[in-house]
Design brief:
The chain is 51% helix and 9% strand. With 231 residues, the protein is of the alpha/beta class. Strands 3-2-1-4-5 form a 5-stranded parallel beta sheet, sandwiched between helices. Strand 2, helix 7 and strand 3 form a beta-alpha-beta unit.
Length: 231
């Protein structure tokens, strides 16, 4: 049975038991196979950042390595992790510029090549036709990237803009595993956390949902190698 179908079976079981009304999907590598494209862009800019602010550090990243280490974080959170790991600081006045560059590069790659995760479109069609659940997206990624992802893959028909939430586009910006974006989404949707269920593919995303008191389904569909997924 495909991983997405397994996820759907778990979802229906959980929803029946706990009277779930709202499904909160992560986007990247849960709905849209976007992480490899995004981490390509992240690698290019991460290496430029290391060259600029930590010239003594000789290590350079490729996309798959960054994905293994930092899946589930947005680029702002990834920069913070690189600063901690390699002992440098990106000046505050430079940070927004790097984040903006990464966003533009990633959106370009997503518009050119993003596809839905395997099996997800029939599941979304089925959920929409049943009409039992309010469908929403809760992502660490910046809102323009999330919208580009679902528009490119024609998933925007399932998720109205008012049901799409971004940690990176909050004020102030956050990233999973901070539960702030999940709590905000539940508040805006008018649903108690315990009456929703989150579907997450990464450790940071799963942690964010759990900290928000939201029942969780772990999705490992895109990850074929042991240890590749974030949790």
């Amino acid at each position: 049975m495909p991983a997405v179908s397994s996820c759907a079976v778990a979802l229906h079981t959980s929803a029946h038991t706990a009277q779930i009304s709202t499904i909160l999907f992560d986007c990247d590598n849960t709905l849209v196979l976007s992480e490899p494209l995004a981490f390509e862009a992240c690698a290019e800019l991460s290496n430029a950042i290391i060259s600029a602010y930590a010239p003594s550090v000789t290590h350079r990243y490729a996309g798959p390595e960054l994905q293994r280490e930092f899946v589930g974080r947005n680029f702002r959170g990834l920069i913070a992790a690189l600063e901690e790991k390699h002992g440098f600081i990106v000046p505050a006045e430079d940070l927004d510029g790097w984040v903006e560059k990464e966003l533009g590069t990633t959106i370009g790659k997503i518009k050119a090549a993003a596809v839905p995760c395997e099996g997800v479109m029939p599941i979304l069609e089925s959920l929409r036709s049943e009409g039992k659940y309010n469908l929403s997206i809760v992502s660490s990624s910046a809102l323009p990237r999330v919208l580009a992802s679902i528009e490119t893959t024609h998933q925007d028909v399932f998720f109205p803009p008012s049901n799409v939430f971004s940690a990176a586009s909050m004020s102030p910006p956050t990233t999973k595993p901070d539960p702030a974006v999940y709590l905000y989404a539940c508040q805006q949707l008018g649903v108690e956390p315990k009456a929703s269920v989150a579907i997450e593919d990464s450790k940071s995303g799963a942690t964010a949902a759990t900290r928000a008191g939201i029942p969780l389904i772990g999705y490992v569909g895109p990850y074929h190698d042991e240890g590749q997924g974030g949790g």
